[in-house]
Amino acid sequence: MPELTDIDRQEEMDSLIREIRNTLARNEPVEETEVETSSEAVRTLVQQQALSRLASKIERLHAADIAKLLESLPQDERLVIWELVHSDRDGEVLLEVSDSVRDSLIEVMDRDEILNAASTLGTDELADLAPDLPEGMMQDVFTALPIDDREKLRFVMSYQEDTIGGLMDFDLVTVRGEVTIEVALRYLRRMDSLPDHTDKLFVTDRDGLFEGVIHLKTLLISDPETVVADVMERDAIRFHPEDKARDGADAFERYDLISAPVVDEVDRLVGRVTVDAVVDFIREASDEERLSQVGLTEEEDIFAPVRKSVRNRAPWLAVNMVTALVAAQVIGLFEGSIQQLVALAALMPIVAGMGGNIGNQTITMIVRELAFRKLGGEDIRLLYGKELKVALINGVVWGGVLAAVTYLMYQHAGVSIVMMAAVSLNFLSAAFFGVTIPILRTRLGRDPALGSAVMITAITDSGGFFIFLGLATLFLL
Q: Which backbone phi and psi does 55 adopt, to 5 degrees?
């Protein structure tokens, strides 16, 4: 049977969403006067059969696909489908959905349902779910765990989400360096299954100190009588729990890692990091960065209640309103100039808009770099030099193009020259502040991406208007 492609899976999901909506639409309650009691009983049976068919189809889906399905439905339909998900899968689905959707699902779960969902998760997965559980519920979950798992959970939760400790898990396979390949293979054959993403075994000594790794492919092709220590990789990439997750993600990408050991300060093996956890972190960090650039401080469910969406979007809209009023005041300063030369009113948004684009390009590059490393003084000087040169060249080139277009439109050489000069100067301003804003916010201990698009747009709008109208007033009027 041919394997389903991503397009096939998407079409299958779209078809299921349509089926869900059609089924739930038919299940809308009707007035008792419209049907007789016997007809109502038949109708109820048909509804139950339709929902049962949906539950059967949902049960066959991967947890990630169920999560995507729930995220694609409005709140009322989402909760109906959530009831159809088998209780044994609640935990894994909760881990896959976005934070905002997870909150809406947990709100309708009672204590026993939450405890049952938590009981199906591993220690590292519980640590991911813990921040979203109702107040006081985590203590119940903690009490229900075996003592060893409690210690592991306490250990993982002691680290921030953006550290390696927040990403690691404890599901790994270790082997001693003095055993032979044959002994290691027999040990593996006695196991019912290997942990997900197992591409290597971790070699430790009697005290649990990390010595190296041996890849599964090495186990398979080596002489059975060979000692593990003779063929293991001693200088394998390893992490500490306090390391930044961004650095870990960079290492996974650079060295094509599938899993990597996590060791403490004395090189004792405490866990591992796997590629799936790193990919999840990268995706979440990317989503947060995109949201923060436009001033959204938290992920928003597309079907979230209006009140929550308004509250989430309000802070930076207020900032944007203030900056728009500043831009309006700048225009007001040159009202007389605009009245004397009407072409200025038509051309000034072009200067501001193109400057905003340059600023956002620069900020995006700087924020991306800051996410992976700290920039030193020499790095910052080089960035200023490079971005200002790029902005100047773009300003001259595109300013020249706009000057030519302006001349064709208005047959006014003076306006064309002012247009070219204003575009060039605004590009330089946009590049300067595009570097300055994220670096300054980083120095102040703030998220460099938060509201950066709003701030650079305000600067390039007000600055662009002031530069263009100011030059026109000085040289044309």
A: -60, -40
Alpha carbon 270 to its chain centroid, in Å, reads 27
Give the pLDDT confidence of 41-98 residue by residue, as tens digits. 666 666 778 888 888 889 989 998 999 999 888 888 899 999 999 989 999 999 989 8
Q: Are 184 and 219 in contact (CB under 8 A)?
A: yes
Spell out where 269-379 has E strands: 269-274
CATH of 174-293, one of 2.60.40.420, 3.10.580.10, 3.40.630.30, 3.40.50.620: 3.10.580.10
Please give the DSSP secondary-structure letter assigned to residue 160: -
Q: Rounded to whole angstroms, what are the CA distances from 296 to 68, 97, 271, 289, 451?
A: 22, 19, 34, 9, 8
Q: Indicate the SS3 state at residue 169.
A: strand
Q: Which of 241, 461, 457 is nearest to 331 (CA)?
A: 461
| Owner of token pair 């340059």 | 358
Q: Rounded CA gap, 1 and 283, in Å?
A: 32
Residues in the chain: 477
175-201 confidence digits (pLDDT tens): 999 999 999 999 999 998 999 999 999
CATH number of 306-476: 1.10.357.20
Would you kindly state where each structural domain of the chain is located, as residue ranges?
A: 19-167, 174-293, 306-476
